[in-house]
Amino acid sequence: MGNELYFDNSATTRISEEALKAYLSVSREQYGNPSSLHGMGQAAEAVLNDARKTLAKTLGDTAGGTLIFTSGGTEANNLAITGRAHAKPRFRGKTILTSAGEHASVKLPLAALENEGFRIVEIPTEGGRLDPEAIARLATPDVILASVMLVNNETGALYDVAAVAAALRRSSPDAILHVDATQAYLKVPFTVKSLGCGMVTLSSHKIEGPMGTGALWVDPGVIRNRGLSPILFGGGQEGGLRSGTEDPPSVAAFAKAAAIGFSALSERSEKLAALRALLLDRIARDPGLSGVRPNLPPVYAPHILSLTLPRIKSETMLHALSARGIYVSSGSACSSHGKHGTSALTAFGLSVSDADATIRVSFSHRNTPEQVDLLADALSEEISRLARF
Ligand code: PMP
User: Fold this and answer.
1) Which of 334, 361, 376, 379 is catalytic?
2) What's the fold here for domain 5-13+265-387?
3) What class has domain 17-263?
4) Could you report the per-residue pLDDT of 255-273, keeping only the tens digit for each?
5) Hey, where are the domains in the chain?
């Protein structure tokens, strides 16, 4: 590896050197168990607490929320959803709102709750926006939770989750808003206050931190009211909300990547937007790309571009590009293992066959305009080659 053209940064990013250094340093020096009472334990615990402060700052949290470290975005989403639904016996059978086309780590815990008797209701996302009328209509006193992503991982749509928060505040006194910010974090600016949410999911490996680590931020009011219950039971780590020995090296590396990403947010976003605009420009001007249809949400994150190809299956294109050392994804890498792969795209308004012909290009601030040109050249060549079959 070295000459690859990696455009699958929403699936994962390469860990930064700084994060890697932090990982190694904590592994070597602060290797105690954070729960141990002695000095080595305290040193490891201090690593976690420093990371909590750093991450809280990137979320603009001034209210003293709780950061629960998890094994990643998937676990944070499961904790938020299942932990909320099971927090109080009186929540049984109540309503949970979500958006159409969520990641499987939101959709499937909700499906499990539906089997338990909860009512799960989707806010339509046609055209890449949350339907405002549906939000107003669906926010009822019966709602105990809304779980809505900030940026869709397949289309890049940036949703107005604050509108959901406002509707819940008006009409749903028992409800809290959970935001899966896995794809939004450090790509678009937000604070927990600007979202108006009670819980936020973060994942480290999307922001140049290590894989297998993440966090759920929880509002102090939710903790105070015992509005969240654990889904893992054991040693009582993380305030009893996530048992299991924490991973200080990964957490330190996550926080390092977050601190760097936070200070570079606007500069990196501008760069990402320019790369995205460049590819769109090539598509608009290059006759070889005239059959490619970009799926453009009205408001979007700068690092994701969804492209529907002219009657070529996304998997075929993915493999053709991969053979050239160019990496994109078909829909979303996380969902391409299962049957849930195309739902965000069909919810956007694509037919199933168009969804099957849709690739996702996701940029890193480390990509260059030259790389985007090479991607566009390769796409154009492969479209004319594959169209012959
Ligand atoms: N939510 C979204 C929107 C995602 O894109 C992903 C990762 N593909 C996840 C959750 C899961 O995060 P993780 O890989 O850290 O479990």
Assistant:
1) 334
2) Aspartate Aminotransferase, domain 1 (3.90.1150)
3) alpha beta
4) 999 999 999 999 999 999 9
5) 5-13+265-387, 17-263
Retrieve residue 128's tokens.
């890449």
For the CA of 334, the closest atom of ligand 1 is 8
Backbone angles phi, psi at 95, to 5 degrees: -100, 140
pLDDT of 387 = 84
CB 251 within 8 A of CB 48: yes
Write out pLDDT tens, residues 345-366: 999 999 999 999 999 999 999 9
Distance CA 116, CA 118 (A): 6
Place of tokens 């290009």: 361
- Give the 3-state secondary structure of residue 244: coil
Number of the ligand 1 atom closest to the C-alpha atom of 75: 16
Torsion angle in degrees (nearest 10) through CA of 45, 48, 52, 55: 160
Confidence band of 341 (pLDDT split at 50, 70, 90): very low
158, 297 Cβ separation under 8 angstroms? yes
**Among this protein's residues, is 334 annotated catalytic?**
yes
